[in-house]
Amino acid sequence: DWNPQSILDEQVAAVRAVVGTEKVICALSGGVDSAVAAALVHQAVGDQLTCVFVDHGLLRAGEREQVERDYVAATGIHLVTVDAEQRFLAALDGITEPETKRKIIGREFIRVFETAAAEINAAEGGVKFLVQGTLYPDVVESGGGTGTATIKSHHNVGGLPDDLQFQLVEPLRALFKDEVRALGAELGLPAAMVKRHPFPGPGLGIRIIGAVDAERLAVLRAADAIVREEMTAAGVDEQIWQCPVVLLADVRSVGVQGDGRTYGHPIVLRPVSSEDAMTADWSRLPYDLLARISNRITGEVSEVNRVVLDITSKPPGTIEWE
Ligand code: XMP
Asked: What is the pLDDT of residue 213?
């Protein structure tokens, strides 16, 4: 039977054997895979590991703090945060096409990471290894070659190019997601990170339908924080796969608040149930929870005057709107 402690011991020993006394870097995304991979490598080689967290400005409320404060407190990992919000916003300026957004975000991410890696390389005197949180399904998928057309060119921090001059360390290559979560718990990582729902690498950038800018990000971030807070309070997190919150930034509708007419934007809730994200059904969340979310968003986020529920399965809809 499957025992997280023995898997951990095995992988820690394996990493130690491969890495020896060399230096290692890792890009953290805030997601569970890179967090567990880095924590495991840290157990193996301690301060030979430096982690890089790129704040691309497309994160949700509290995510940076979760990595910088909670994750670092739990692991003792040496973390370098790169403030790259302005750079990403400049590169995304005026861009509305989803695949173009993804390509720009992926490209900028690689550039920022390469610069950070070069600096760490110079400071540490030679970095030989790069940790990646590749899981077994990722290995299978990339070797699959099914010949189907790309629907979305997924970008995540695992998507670094092969020509980076590092040898890869992938301690989660044989594991499935639930096993990685068990290892994360065993490693004492923050529960909110270990249990986190999937969140796309391009972040809120692909949840604003329309061009991305700082004001729109602030609106979406506020609405998203309310949704997550209410869902957690209602205890439904474990019943659903994830719940993208989407801002229709180019759509306006008329509303009324107090004595005044409003002309604001809709927020879309996209709660889905799924086994593997390949197919999904819309989640039948309790009406009173939906009502609380709607009341709070329209009451607390002044740019939003309408909250709508996406009741499309996948297919035909994808989970994300872009
Ligand atoms: P779709 O929208 O294709 O999403 O039904 C399937 C799953 O993948 C996530 N997703 C992404 N993850 N980079 C990621 O790391 C991306 O570019 C990306 N696009 C979608 C989505 O949240 C869902 O879990």
From this structure: 98
Q: Which ligand 1 atom lies nearest to the CA of residue 153?
A: 17
Closest CA to 176 of 28, 48, 275: 275
- Tell which one of 29, 154, 274 to mutate to probe ligand 1, the residue whose CB is within 8 A of the most ligand atoms: 154
Please check whether residues 42 and 163 belong to one and the same domain: yes
Same domain, 135 and 215: no
Ligand 1 pocket residues where CB is under 6 Å: 102, 152, 154-156, 198, 200-202, 242, 277, 314, 318-320
Residues 220 and 176 in one domain: no
pLDDT band at 159 (very low <50, low <70, confident <90, very high): low
How far does residue 284's CA lie from ligand 1's centre (Å)? 21
Residue 175, domain extent: 4-194
Task: Quote the CA–CA distance of 301 and 226 in Å, as a whole number.
Answer: 10
Let me know: does 96 contact 102? Beta carbons within 8 Å. no
pLDDT at 149: 62
Q: Which atom of ligand 1 is nearest to the CA of 202?
A: 17
Query: How far, in Å, from the CA of 87 to the mean position of ligand 1?
Result: 23
pLDDT at 139: 86
Tens digits of per-residue pLDDT, 134-146? 999 888 877 644 4
- Give me the chain's average pLDDT, please: 94
The annotation status of 274 as a binding-site residue, yes or no, is: no
261 and 190 belong to one structural domain:
no
